[in-house]
């Protein structure tokens, strides 16, 4: 059974086509820098790697480019859209409506749309991926796997905000957490590596969007993103934590509208606001060339991560491992080095030679005698989504 998984991020589309239940990868790839004239489309099969560069200005265009490649007679994988039995989609915000994998219906799509105001960079892209996939693969069953689901185990004292109680009971304003599929996948890999179920782990997902999770005995107990995916760490275009009074100052003193403020914090802040660039690779290149703003932005980025490590080590009452994952976490030797510097008090000790190595599987970059393991674990949200969609399909769970 062929299962296509689409992971439509804020500026990228990752995809994998699996033969299930064996989880054999028939093809995989990524479309990066969506919205730019130098977007990159990488398509890999077991035999070939094809790479294109050129303008891909939105997610709809990117997904149609992918479908064309899947059906290409020379290099494609499928002969007909009917070959795809299931399509699994990553959806960022499920609110209170979805705490598990769900078959997609018109009602589900409407709820995803309603939640777009809480995840404006993601839910619209996720929904667009669903609708394009329905158009291209009309006979396939479509399933949504929600980023918020893994964080349902966060206790009330951690997810509740210190505002009047009725905002939670009547309006469901609370911490939801995101990137849950990634945090679940890499935390399970870390537990397997450590060889013990009773574990205290901090998972650090670093991409254009960034988040951290405190994971105790395999369960999420706290998370850096909250009601929406804008709090916590410094991200590509999102501010992360700021003093809420700044919002009122922008509105009352600088005459910003609420829409202007939302756009500022979601799309014009973070590394973009600090440097004029949102792609960490570009920022690192400029920093290496002596750009002071880029150098400072990298220091600020690492500093924020260190603060959360200290906080989560406290609530976990100890630490067995920290895990770096996702595009930046897996590939940026510099960020990992900046984060782990001067963390000896917590038992975090980096081996520079190991940190410089690249590997496709779980590997430790800590010193051999370090009390806390520093792990780099490539995330595979797509595999996790494929497994959950296949399981639900076989169980024939009721529709929402």
Summary keywords:
alpha/beta, eight-stranded mixed sheet
Widest sheet: strand order?
A: 5-4-3-2-1-6-8-7
Spans of at least 5 consecutive residues with low confidence: none
Tally of separate helices: 15
Termini gap: 24 Å
Mean pLDDT across residues: 92
C-alpha geometry: globular
Number of strands: 14
Helical coverage, percent range: 25-40%
**Mind summarizing the main beta sheet?**
8 strands, mixed
How much of the sequence lies in strands comes to 15-25%
| Element order: H for helix, E for strand | EEEEEHEEHHEHHHEEEHHHHHEHHHEEH
Which structural category do the helix and sheet elements fall into? alpha/beta
User: What is the CA-based Rg, rounded?
Assistant: 21 Å
Oligomeric form of this entry?
Answer: single chain
How are the secondary structure elements laid out?
Elements: E1 2-8, E2 13-19, E3 24-32, E4 36-45, E5 49-56, H1 59-70, E6 84-91, E7 102-103, H2 106-114, H3 123-136, E8 141-146, H4 156-159, H5 166-169, H6 180-194, E9 200-206, E10 210-216, E11 219-223, H7 245-252, H8 258-267, H9 270-275, H10 280-288, H11 292-316, E12 321-325, H12 326-331, H13 333-340, H14 352-356, E13 363-364, E14 373-376, H15 381-395
Parallel strand pairs: 1-6, 6-8, 9-12, 12-14
Antiparallel strand pairs: 1-2, 2-3, 3-4, 4-5, 7-8, 9-10, 10-11, 13-14
Helix pairs in contact: 1-3, 10-11, 11-13
